[in-house]
Specification:
Blueprint (H helix, E strand, L loop, with lengths): L9 H23 L4 H19 L5 H12 L3 H17 L7 H11 L13 E2 L7 H8 L5 H10 L3 E4 L4 E4 L10 H24 L17 H33 L20 H4 L12
Antiparallel strand pairs: 1-3, 2-3
Length: about 290
């Protein structure tokens, strides 16, 4: 008689269900963008070995490969190769460049000097004393010319230049670059990566609680969803107006301190789908003649 494998625990079942929910949209993105499974498999192997390595920081070098192979289920030769790949990648890794365009956008959306009485971003003179686009850009950085920052916002279709009166206006109310797939993918990686990292840290219980809340509703019409979207947009504008200046002030205050090494990302997300469309319609039965 062969022994039956132990039944997976409720926690393992919940973990697998959660991983399926995460993996399915990633697979959809990879397939739709022509990324083959072998490439994703290599990334996943590196991530597994990197996570196992981080979990055993004090492991003696001569025991590390065997321990990581046991922890990940990847054979020792492959673990050795992946450790070398990770070391090379870490040595050549550079800090991500600041997105100056996004900082200009956020400052324009949140600073009262650059908003009208209704809280909407003003159309600004391109040059001159504040409030102007030139003064706005120089408050973010003096290392890049304001015209270069303006050209980037124009390229991303986030701003519009009126040549007749030489003014600049925002044309979008959320920083989602239109037609810039590279930047959108960067946003996906940063936003979803940090969100998932916070959620995982909450589950593993590392002693910190990352803020993660959501509201769920079903049985809505398309019109109701659009109304909620509009409401969320207005709330987000208020949140930007309150938090961006506060965060900028804290960054300036903390600059002289050695402990100013933390970063913070705050986001709001929505997702809606037509659940009726997700269920395939029943196939009609063929009538049979008697």
């Amino acid at each position: 008689m062969t022994a039956r494998a132990p039944a997976p625990s409720d926690e393992q079942e919940a973990l697998l269900a959660a991983l399926r929910r995460v993996a399915e949209p990633l697979a959809t993105l990879a397939v739709q963008r022509g990324l083959p499974y072998a490439t994703v498999d290599e990334l996943l192997r590196r991530a597994f070995v990197g996570a196992a390595d981080a979990a055993h920081p004090d492991m003696l070098p001569h025991r590390k490969v065997s321990r990581l192979a046991t922890a990940t289920g990847i054979n020792r030769r492959e673990v050795s190769r992946l450790l070398g790949v990770l070391r090379d990648a870490k040595a050549s890794q550079q800090l991500p460049r600041r997105s100056l365009a996004s900082e200009v956008f956020a400052h324009w959306m949140s600073d009262a000097r650059y908003r009208d009485r209704r809280g909407e971003p003003k159309a600004l003179r391109r040059q001159g004393r504040a409030p102007s686009f030139e003064s706005l850009a120089q408050e973010i950085t003096r290392d890049v010319h304001p015209r270069s920052l303006l050209d980037e916002l124009l390229r991303l279709k986030l701003a519009q230049l009126n040549d007749e009166n030489d003014t600049v206006a925002l044309v979008r109310d959320a920083f989602v670059p239109s037609g810039d797939r590279v930047r959108m993918l960067q946003f996906l990686g940063h936003n979803v990566g940090d969100h998932l990292s916070g959620a995982v840290a909450n589950v593993l219980g590392d002693g910190r609680r990352h803020f993660e809340q959501a509201i769920y509703a079903e049985g809505l019409s398309e019109a109701s969803v659009q109304e909620v979207w509009q409401h969320i947009g207005e709330l987000w504008k208020g949140l930007l107006a309150a938090l961006v200046p506060a965060l900028e002030g804290k960054v300036e205050r903390d600059k002289p301190h050695e402990g100013a090494t933390h970063r913070l990302r705050l986001g709001v997300y929505t997702f809606d789908e037509n659940t009726a469309a997700a269920v395939p319609p029943a196939r009609p039965r063929r009538s049979r003649k008697q």
